[in-house]
Automatic annotation (TrEMBL):
Biased composition (Basic residues): 104-123
Species whose genome carries this gene: candidate division MSBL1 archaeon SCGC-AAA382N08
Protein name: 30S ribosomal protein S9
PROSITE patterns from the UniProt entry: RIBOSOMAL_S9 (PS00360)
Family: Belongs to the universal ribosomal protein uS9 family.
Residue intervals passing through the bilayer: none
GO cellular component: cytosolic small ribosomal subunit
UniProt key word Transmembrane: no
GO MF, one annotated term: RNA binding
Signal peptide: none
Sequence segments annotated as region (Disordered): 92-123
Keyword annotations from UniProtKB, A to Z: Ribonucleoprotein, Ribosomal protein
Length: 123
């Protein structure tokens, strides 16, 4: 399981099968429009030089596409550590095992957003 903002990604890794990454039953090259997002998804596998050894199946939901890509990277790193604990040191140093806790702040009563106050009027 990987998370980022409101996105969650359930990642399953299958060894010794045809190497591919499926996100919501689509190839990840088709699911993510930009090369930056495609690189984010494949980062954890590339870091460990295992991109051609595993079939990865991902169910991603919530948030935006960029947030989903980061959630997938987080989940993939955690799954690789479960598979082989010697990967932990390199993935931790790269920052892939740390969940990014930043979330959108809630709206408060009497305010226009989370912090913005209504415009002040003299008369």
């Amino acid at each position: 399981m990987g998370r980022r903002k409101t996105s969650t990604a359930v990642v399953r890794i299958f060894p010794k099968e045809d190497p591919e990454i499926l996100v919501n039953e689509k190839p990840y090259e088709e699911y993510f429009p930009t090369t930056e997002m495609k690189e984010l998804v494949a980062d954890a596998l590339e870091k460990m030089n295992t991109e051609d050894k595993f079939k990865v199946s991902v169910m991603a939901k919530g948030g935006g596409l960029h947030s989903q890509a980061e959630a997938i990277r987080h989940g993939m790193a955690r799954a690789l550590v479960d598979l082989n604990s010697s990967f932990k040191k390199r993935l931790k140093r790269a920052g892939y095992l740390t969940r990014d806790p930043r979330m959108k702040e809630r709206k408060k009563p009497g305010k226009r957003g989370a912090r913005r106050s209504p415009q002040w009027q003299k008369r």
